[in-house]
Automatic annotation (TrEMBL):
Its main location: cytoplasm. It comes from Sediminitomix flava. GO terms for biological process: regulation of DNA repair. Modulates RecA activity. One of its GO terms (cellular component) is cytoplasm. This is Regulatory protein RecX. It comes from the Bacteria. Keywords: Cytoplasm. The keyword Cytoplasm applies. It is found in: Cytoplasm. The keyword Cytoplasm applies.
Amino acid sequence: MYQKYQREYSYKELLHKAASYSAYQDRSVFDVEQKLKTWNASEDDINKILDKLISEKYLDEERFALSFARGKLKGNKWGKRKISIALQQKKIGKTIIQKALSSLDAELYWDILIKVSEQKWNSLAKEKDERVKKYKLLQFLLGRGFESDLNQEAYLHLLNTNNDE
């Protein structure tokens, strides 16, 4: 059957490609390692390249985690639990994950939670049973990675603002 041709890259070419890949946007060491594997780099070359990129500040796990957490909160409207799981999948250490999550602005986090809650609540307008509506909202927020206690507070906030109108 047909096999795709895989080009062999020299160490210098791999280093240049990996540096370009890392410079384009913040990447985790895991991401760059995976990319190097797709380019058929040897384990020895991968280790040398990663060490070089880290020493030259192309790769910085902490900078990546901070950027990733901000981006997922603002762009994807993810909660801390979902961000934490995604960072764990990228092999980021627990202390760096904690630092990234604690760096998120609490007021912005709450505002996003409320906005997402209101949007979901409004999309459930046809639902007659309030308990089902509440259940669906809380399940949605859990799926987005927001914490249970905050989800409950957001629900109560929605009830208060809807009753005030």
